[in-house]
Amino acid sequence: MPFNIYDFSGTTKAIDQFLYAKMAPTWAFITELAIVGIIILLFYAVIGLYLVYLERKVCAFMQNRVGPNRVGKWGLFQTIADLIKLLMKELITIRKADKLLFNVAPFIVIIASFMAIAAIPFAKGLHAVDFNIGVFYMMAVSSIGVIGILLAGWSSNSKYSLIGAMRSGAQVVSYELSVGLALLSVVIFSGSMQLSTIVESQANGWWIFKGHIPAIISFIIFLIASTAEINRGPFDLAEAESELTAGFHTEYSGIRFAFFFLGEYMNMFIVASLAATVFLGGWMPLHIGNLQGFNHVMDFIPPIFWYFGKTIFIMYLIMWFKWTFPRLRIDQLLTLEWKYLLPINLVNILIISFIVLMGWYIK
Amino acid sequence: MEKEQLGQVLSELFPSLEINTSQDPVRVKADAGSIHSLAMTLRDDSRLQFDYLFNMYGIDREDRFTLVYYLESTLLRHIVAIETDLADHDNPVVESISDLWKTAEFQEREIYDLMGVSFTNHPDPRRLFLEDGWGFPLRKDYRDDINFIER
Amino acid sequence: MQEVELQDILTAREDGDYIINIGPQHPSTHGVLRFVVSLKGEMLEYVIPHCGYIHRGIEKMCERLTYPQIIHLTDRMDYLSAHMNNEAVSLLVEKATGVEVPERVKYIRTILSELQRIQSHQLWWAAFGMDMGGLTCFFYGLRDREKILDIFEESFGSRLLHSYICPGGLMNDIHPNFQKRTKEFIKYFRKKLPEFDELLTGNIIFEMRTKGMGVLSKEEAISYGLTGPPGRASNFACDIRKLYPYSAYDKVDFKEILYTEGDTWARYKVRMDEMWESMKIIEQLIDNIPEGDFTAKMKPVIRLPEGEYSQRVETARGELGVYVVSKGEKTPYRMHFRTPNFSNLFVMNRLAAGNKIADLIAISGSLDLVIPDIDR
Any chain B CB within 8 A of the CB of C9? Predict the structure, then answer.
């Protein structure tokens, strides 16, 4: 079986041909689905675990302490220990809570982020679902997570949870606008919503450089808005421990809480991937125009490392925000979106459209 | 204002009350029935201007209660202590001065809670620390079989 | 006055109020305090504080204890200003019995009070930043506070409740390293305190959340008896160290910090500036501690002559007053503590009503309440 770290399409084609040769077409198709599903599940779980570990280490670094370093070398097995603990905890059910909604809510959050992971291009040829409306699909699917949050708050039958869920719902719905418009700017630049086309169009330079100032503005707005989308950083009012204990997931325990927790970190991963794909070139190495020598050196590093490097860099930025800034109040949060980010975004889109018409950008 | 001067002004305004300038601060022995008008004069008179009530507490002398108010003027920098005796030991009642100084509302609630002195015209006559039905612990005749060990 | 139920008061207000309970176990009330809060959406209509969860009957206990024993109880009222509480009772006993303490004792007492003040404000800053959401502030504040606690531990044996200042002087002499370590700490902290400003004070989000929030005018502050840093933030000049100096405060030169705005921002800034002033006071005293005894000669059994005595002291949170009625025995007949947090607590309703829940946390953080002081 050919395995080329620079281009996975050879490997995937070989597996595809092998399966279709061995079994009937329907069974081969189902097997392929199953394989892709299992790989993404494993990827999701493992990345989720290590994201928590990464956050704890980064947080400790910023707070002048060490972080987990006892369980396993450098504390690498800390999250696994936490996971085992959470799995063993008692699942407390509240007497007057709406049982069906209470149980369904964590699953909705996980399913939403799971579906979004499927559409991200990890490396050349390693792309699970390549829609021609890729950007649109990711936006749509990550919006489903709000339903999970609102259901969680409502079905907990507790005033704290309800307040937290309402705040969170208002916040996420408002910031989706800014996220969508910021992504739209790169769609206008590249002319396509398909994620693999967007990545390939950055072969001679990333959009954040090619689109100069408007793209940088879009990038900054995207970062701010998506931090608010995922209920993180200075916008984590919905789960502020010092105010409402834990907001919408106060009443959850054990594995259900683990789902919310995991979902939040994976949402951060998705948002960082999206930023990396759309603005920073996805798995494309850093190419500068037509400098052949430089481009060749950059090509030496496999695309999958480029992708993970960029994603981790953006996640580091997002974590940096959280551990430095105090929290915004809910009305200040919504003011920021509706009175500042949205008008800037709209004007930016107009400017970008004009620039694209005039051709004043690096094609 | 100096102590002697303050004592003089006070004796002018309240000729019937006993004013003691030998102690620090000046002490005025007031009449429980007229405490509110006395307090209002102390606050509003331009030579006195006691705008800061910084302390209030009660003493259970076994046959009567004594309430002590400490007033300070932040503008003229003098302090006076007002003492009132409440003769009825079983049901001490006095008028509330919470409409003059806002902090008095809570100091009076504490005195009610711990000593049982009732205040008329109080906007929020509730206990502060203890549960309803608890006795009045700071009284000298308070007995608690569980927590007190009498020698 | 009949014993009126809380229910009667609440039903007298409108029906359909959304009432939630914040506390007594809550990450940011810093102690066992319960707020019954009525919400209309995000807006607070009224806040009713319920205290008494840690009422231990200190005033009643004092009627059975001798004056040196009372020192140990006063430690536990406002435990972050333990030295100042001890100093209040000691000064009262010395004034009443006419004992003159040596100069050395006065200097050391003042230095300890100021170190205690810095340490209290560091913990306040750490907790305030954490409540606002900047979790890193907690670690920075406590990291620097550990240095002071190490100095205390070396000299007095414990980090928090020392019971070191007693009637007549001090329990024991200070450790020989005390002066050196305090000077090192001052040098270290002068470099670190600007870091606090960089992290929180200059942050635009923090300014948006604290400026113009919970404004209290000077007249209201005086009427509520709001002393200490919140009072001084409303331009109420109530610093007992300046008005009625005690110990070595008349020998040092320091500014009384006053701000006029009266909002949460001003209350924050007063404490930050007070830390600078405290370091200035310590620097003026630390090299000049006179030699001598660490205590004056007191009788083995201390009896206060008959009469009423009072002493006022400036703790980290405001004016602490100790009032004793003595009948000439070795235990007081009645002892009353006028605690700063008691008066400071009850402006909560006035400040928080009409704002949002997030502001309730900001305001109660800026008032810096220590609950055992309220309940005694």
Answer: yes
Contacts with C52 from chain B: Cβ below 8 Å: 128-130
pLDDT in tens, A177-234: 899 999 988 888 888 888 888 888 887 778 888 878 888 999 999 999 999 988 888 8
Instruction: Decide if C116 contacts C316 (C-beta within 8 A).
Output: yes
With beta carbons less than 8 A apart as the criterion, state whether A312 and A221 touch. Answer: no
Q: How far apart, in whole angstroms, are the C-alpha atoms of residue C294 and residue C317?
A: 28
Alpha carbon distance A143, C257 (integer Å): 51
Who's near A199: CB < 8 A, 6+ residues apart? A121, A277, A281, A282, A283, A284
Q: Does residue B31 belong to any structural domain of this protein?
A: yes
Residue A71, in any domain of the structure: no
Contact A214, A348 (CB under 8 A): yes
Whether residue A344 has pLDDT greater than 90:
yes
Q: What is the pLDDT of residues A233-250, one digit of tens each?
A: 888 877 665 565 667 777
C209: which chain A residues are within 8 Å (Cβ-Cβ)?
326-329, 332
Residues of A in contact with C206 (CB under 8 A): 326
Nearest CA in chain C to B116: C1
ipTM of the assembly? 0.90
Give me the residues of C, 192-211, that contact A with CB < 8 A: 199-200, 203, 205-206, 208-209
pTM for the whole thing?
Answer: 0.87
Confirm whether A41 is domain-assigned: no
Tell me whether B40 touches chain C (CB under 8 Å): no
Kindly list the distances between the CA atom of residue C326 and the CA atoms of A310, B18, B68, C21, C308, in Å, as whole numbers in the listed order: 75, 21, 15, 42, 6
Task: Using alpha carbons, list the distances in angstroms from residue C139 to A228, A249, C133.
Answer: 25, 26, 13
Report yes or no on A74 lying in a domain: no
Name the residue of chain C whose CA is nearest to B131's CA: C52
In chain A, % of residues over pLDDT 70: 97
Of A160, A324, A331, the CB nearest to C134: A324
State the helix-helix crossing angle for A99-117 and A145-155, rounded to 10 degrees.
Answer: 160
Q: In this structure, are residues C102 and C169 in contact, taking their beta carbons and an 8 Å threshold?
A: yes
**Strands B52-61 vs B26-30: parallel, antiparallel or unpaired:** unpaired
Q: Confidence class of residue A24 from pLDDT cuts 50, 70 and 90?
A: confident
Q: Which CATH architecture has domain C58-375?
A: Orthogonal Bundle (1.10)
Q: How many domains is chain A built from?
A: 1
Q: Where are the domains of chain C?
A: 6-50, 58-375
Give pLDDT, residue C130.
84
Average pLDDT along chain C, 376 residues, taken 10 residues at a time: 53 63 71 84 83 88 89 88 91 90 90 92 90 85 90 88 87 87 92 87 85 87 90 89 88 88 90 91 88 85 89 91 90 91 89 83 87 87
Low-confidence winner among A121-130, A239-248, B20-29, C14-23 (lowest mean pLDDT): A239-248
Q: Is residue A34 part of a domain?
A: no
Tally the residues of chain C.
376
List residues of chain A with CB under 8 Å from any CB of chain C: 59, 62-65, 159-160, 163, 234, 236-237, 240-245, 323-332
Q: Domain range holding A326?
A: 92-358
Across the interface, of A59, A163, A327, the residue whose CB is closest to C132 is A327
Q: What pLDDT does residue A312 have?
A: 92
Range of the domain at B24: 3-89
